[in-house]
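Give me the fold.
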Amino acid sequence: MKNVLCAALCGLTLSGLMLTGWAGAATSYRVRSGDTLGQIAARAGLSVGQVQAANPKLRGKTGVQAGWVLTLPARPGAATQYRVRSGDSLSVIAKRYNVSLSQLFRANPRYAGGKPVQVGALVKIPARTVTASSTRTPAATVRTASTSSRAGGWLWPLGSYNTISSGYGERTLEGDSEMHYGVDIVAPLGTPVRAARSGRVLESRPDFERGWGWTVVIEHPDGWITRYAHLSVNLIRKGELVSRGQTIGRVGNTGRSTGPHLHFGTYLRWDPRNPLGLY
């Protein structure tokens, strides 16, 4: 069955989160009433620290106010381009994207000799690669999900495949700590991925700018949201209603991925929660 084709957009909407900008670049978001910094970061696939680093007004703070416009950096792991603005230097840009100055020079050799960057120029931001030694935790086997939980009716998305290669929480990437909002479940390419609960499809698209690859996001009753990323094929479309256990895609190795697996993330009103706590 073919991939569900959809265009990669310069602006994208995630259940009310509007990101404006052009593909692969830092984006901006206007804070709405009721937003928290954790929710905004989770929706964009970033850690709170990454959002704070891109917004000087948030240094040392976790509170946000409605109406503020925040800069959301591109998710580490995807090669991007950045259009230079007034006051930028390569050092400033490197810090904004959490890459070293030497990495930036290697990606943009024309500046290696000390040539200044001009306003309006495009600078390539190198991808931050994930290495098995720095991100893989010892494989842990979790029990197969039951059909009941305190949230009600949760189904394990990969049937009998339950080996976790990277768990929920802080992990180290190239010496830097980042938050992993989900679990990585190892399975062969093409393994059917099932909806954990019934709901409505919010997203079904390729999201390589933020490292998810082919991804599906489903909104469930009572505020729960699930993400299924790094797929090889999407089998449902945005706006469709899906039932619990319905095949929505197949395991892949797309986006920021070190091997065939499913990234499975769960959120309650966009507050990230450990999926293993639901089974």
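The mean pLDDT is 76.
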